[in-house]
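User: Sequence in, structure out. Go.
Assistant: Echoing your sequence, followed by the structure tokens.
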Amino acid sequence: MTEQHVYVVDDEEAVRRSLSFLLRTSGYQTALYASGIEFLREAKGLEPGCVLLDVRMPEMDGLEVQRELAARGVALPVIVLTGHGDIGTAVQAMKAGAIDFLEKPFEKAALIDALTVGFAQLAQAGAGAEAARGAELRLAALTARERDVLAGLAKGLPNKTIAYDLGISPRTVEVHRANLMTKLEVRSLSEALRIAFAVGMG
């Protein structure tokens, strides 16, 4: 990810402006929203990025926005911004999946640290989704029988047990195993298993 997007959701214009300035001078791309409702209107189509979400807002508070994001399947890391004395709310937000909370006024270093965690989480999720897509494409090359053998290997079963379960000879299992390794372009069983696990086998 070259551009790192940060979405600032806060009903106070002064807070939005100062956060935007601070983030832009630190190399982030920002988009500002004056309410949770305004943000949710666009949330589904946004580039991957982190959300700085104020807890206390009129119409719809930060926790409601967070719940709505989860309900819509929008998996953007959320960092909650709280006023003094909102610690209980911040803990609720963390339980609901927020990665961190910052009490206003906060240090720039604390904000950057929280964002670093958020972007690391995004990169991992992206890599996981990418790996799963790549694995699905490679598994599509296998016959149904080769998939069965791979599923047995992913469960940690020896060739003899796989052969018994599938009603074929251990020698045939070995042939299928060699074929699937060739088709998946892997040199070791551990590499084959990594592909199997990426799509949830075993």
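User: And one key feature?
Assistant: The first strand starts at residue 5 and ends at 9.
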